[in-house]
Write a structure and sequence with these properties.
There is one protein chain. With 104 residues, the protein is an alpha+beta fold. The chain has a single domain, classed as Ribosomal protein L7/L12, C-terminal domain/Adaptor protein ClpS (Ribosomal Protein L30, Chain: A), CATH 3.30.1390.10. The chain is globular, with a radius of gyration of 20 Å.
Length: 104
């Protein structure tokens, strides 16, 4: 017996499933202050946000000169966790470093 082609049905279902599983992304922003050292900001960008040293330095300079820098785009739970990690490590080190979330 011959089999019917289900290519069209599979393609549509895959497209619908792909749309349903992509969560909205949030921007994580790091804000400038007058007390947190540039070295600490670079360390946070490298360790928490997994940036290369060159990328971390570029973002740090944006934060320093523009007042805010983009650390990345993440689903809400991941973005919130990264913000909390930065805040906890900054408090532990005695820095007032602040991050925020914005829906993108």
């Amino acid at each position: 017996m011959g089999r019917k082609s289900t290519g069209e049905q599979t393609g549509v279902a895959s497209q619908v499933r792909a749309k349903a599983t992509q969560p909205p992304l949030f921007k994580v922003l790091m804000h400038n202050d007058d007390y947190t050292t540039m070295e600490f900001v670079v360390t946070m960008l490298e360790t928490v946000f997994r940036k290369s040293p060159a990328e971390a330095n570029r973002i740090m300079l944006n934060i320093h000169y523009r007042g805010v820098g983009l650390c990345g785009y993440y689903p809400f739970d991941i973005a919130e966790t990264k913000v909390n990690k930065v805040h906890a490590q900054a408090r532990e080190a005695g820095h007032p470093l602040r991050c925020s979330l914005e829906e993108s």
